[in-house]
Specification:
Elements (H helix, E strand, L loop, with lengths): L1 H18 L15 H7 L12 H12 L1 H11 L7 H7 L11 H12 L3 H4 E4 L5 E2 L3 E8 L4 E7 L3 H22 L1 H6 L1 H15 L2 H14 L6 E2 L12 E5 L4 E2 L3 H6 L4 H19 L1 E3 L7 E4 L7 E4 L5 E3 L2 H15 L3 H10 L9 H12 L12 H14 L9 H17 L5 H17 L1 H18 L3 H59 L5 H18 L4
Parallel strand pairs: 5-10
Antiparallel strand pairs: 1-3, 2-3, 3-4, 4-6, 7-9, 8-11, 9-10
Helix pairs in contact: 3-4, 3-5, 4-5, 8-10, 13-18, 13-19, 14-15, 14-19, 15-16, 16-17, 19-20, 21-22
């Protein structure tokens, strides 16, 4: 039954793509021969939005397919080096211009979540959405104390739609890994599982509220990033209320320039925010498309970022952070051999791979982009080279780093729009070097001792008792070891006795058979048979009372 539903959903996806004429994207590719088949299974020759551009048709199709596909379009909208401008411009509208749902439904959800009439909750509630995205939409409101807030409300039925799409993605991932070695190398199943868990967190707005509060705490009093306040009394699974912010959307380049914003400073500060989140806090905003980022231009020379929509956040453990930092620093120093060694040490590629050969492949991919601004780099070509290198050396994709990779693409895409002359690597280098110094230098050692000293002080009076208990446990363990050793010796003795008995029984049985054969062969000459029989009896008796 599940397979039938998934087949139906796959046909619906195909029909939507064909209806919007998106099969034309296959024309310049080897997949062009499948266009007639795709049209056949669309079960209709009707075309939608024939008079619209290809970018508009792609945006409308992704919107119709649902939130997972909308998020894919959001990410592509930031990659103007990979996506043609006409398509990128249209996909950018997916960031906050998805068609809204009815305001009466929005009011009903709020009242059910808080179990209170909406007129008692707010002094005012604007029925016209401020923004509408793939997962939720946002309404302006005013609290009874006069504070201006925004109310974020989940789309009705969104859980069911996401579950359906994720079931399809899981099936496609299993199918891909079954028939494709490349899919197995990319660990598609694990990547889809990670995406599934990310979406599950995103549709519980209490988790987004907690993420927002944590990010706000990390950048408290910072002039780099401002995160709005959460109103916990009004926050539930399907809705949250937070402080209303004002700023210029980061995608509105003309408005930023008109406000006198130092675009280089804005790009540099964006890079600093990203690396601070990753390496200082191990907690980073993983959905940094332009619809979620605004700019406070009150100080144009030191513009402050404003981040919203913290539903998708990434975390890294210490080993991942150290590995990434070492790779970045090796890249800054053009130490490609060290990069190759790090990949082997981390287990990302097999230990039997030739280090010099892998080093040469990395150098060929990285050297052309080193020290160049974003405007001078073809990241599309660079990514193709990296994928070819990964495939050649059977490099394993790390699912825990997928969110980080996506976020880095967002950062690079934003940097390209804000200040194309930005040298992303050179800008990041000081932050990474400072982080490494803080992690492994004398200061880091002192900070570690200072952090653990109160715990040591608390445990100091207990040390004699702890030492006595540990010595007592060691003594008990030694006694148990001696007992186990005696039991093992006894088992070995029984084993040897059994082997001894079986050996003598086998010899005795063999002699008994020979005795019978001898007597039957020469019945008048009985004494050889008698000797053999007596020997057989002796060996049989020995098998019953084995001794060594």
């Amino acid at each position: 039954m599940n397979a039938i539903r998934q087949l139906h959903h796959a046909l619906k996806i195909n029909r939507t793509l064909v209806h919007y004429g998106l099969d034309e994207f296959l024309a310049p590719t080897p997949l062009a021969r499948f266009r007639p088949l795709a049209k056949l299974f669309s079960l209709s020759l009707r075309r939608k939005a024939k008079d619209k551009s290809r970018g508009e048709r792609l945006r409308l199709a992704l919107t119709e397919l649902g939130p997972i596909y909308v998020k894919l379009g959001q990410m592509l909208s930031t990659r103007r080096d990979l996506v043609p401008p006409d398509i990128a411009d249209e996909l950018a509208k997916l960031q906050d211009q998805v068609p809204p749902f009815d305001s009466n439904i929005a009011r009903s959800i709020v009242e059910k979540q808080l179990d209170t009439p909406i007129d008692e909750l707010f002094a005012s509630f604007n029925d016209t959405p401020l923004a509408s995205a793939s997962i939720a939409q946002v309404h302006e409101a005013t609290l009874n104390n006069g504070e201006e807030v925004v109310v974020k409300i989940l789309r009705p039925g969104i859980r069911r739609k996401i579950l359906r799409d994720m079931q399809m993605m899981h099936s496609m991932a299993h199918w891909a890994e079954k028939y494709s070695s490349e899919a197995r190398r990319l660990r598609i199943i694990e990547v889809v599982k990670e995406y599934d868990s990310t979406l599950a967190r995103e549709i519980d707005l209490r988790i987004e509220a907690a993420n927002t509060s944590h990010l706000r705490h990390n950048f408290e009093c910072s002039d780099l990033l401002y995160v709005p306040k959460i109103y916990w009394d009004y926050t539930r699974v399907k809705m949250l209320v937070m402080e209303k912010i004002s700023g210029i959307p980061i995608g509105n380049i003309e408005a930023l320039k008109a406000s006198g914003v130092d675009m280089k400073a804005l790009a540099d500060r964006g890079v600093e925010i990203f690396f601070t989140q990753v390496f200082r806090d191990s907690f980073f905003h993983a959905d940094m498309h332009p619809g979620n980022i605004f700019v406070n231009v009150s100080n144009p020379q030191e513009p402050q970022y404003i981040a919203i929509d913290c539903g998708i956040m990434g975390t890294l453990d210490e080993s991942d952070k150290r590995y990434l930092a070492d790779n970045f620093l090796a890249f800054f120093d053009r130490d490609y051999r060290r990069i190759a060694e790090l990949h082997v040490e981390s287990g990302w590629i097999d230990a039997d791979v030739s280090i010099p050969e892998f080093e040469s492949a990395i150098r060929a991919a990285c050297e052309p982009i080193f020290g160049k601004s974003l405007a001078e780099i073809s990241f599309g070509h660079f990514l193709i080279q990296l994928f070819q290198t990964a495939r050649r050396f059977n490099m394993q994709v790390q699912p825990q780093l997928v969110l980080l990779q996506k976020t880095l693409l967002y950062v690079e895409g934003l940097g390209r729009q804000l200040y194309p002359q930005l040298d992303l690597w050179q800008t990041a280098q000081p932050y990474l070097k400072q982080w490494v110094r803080e992690q492994i230098g004398p200061k880091a050692m002192f900070e570690d001792i200072k952090r653990q000293f109160p715990d040591w002080l608390h445990k100091a009076p207990k040390l004699p008792g702890l030492l006595f208990d540990n010595f007592h446990r060691i003594g008990q363990s030694l006694n148990q070891f001696e007992q186990l050793k005696a039991q093992f010796t006894e088992l070995e003795r029984h084993k040897l006795e059994q082997q001894y008995a079986l050996k003598h029984a086998f010899i005795g049985g063999s002699l008994a058979i020979l005795s019978g054969i001898s007597y039957l062969a020469v019945p008048h000459d009985w004494w050889p048979a008698a000797i053999l029989g007596a020997s057989a009896a002796w060996f049989m008796i020995k098998s019953l009372w084995p001794t060594k």
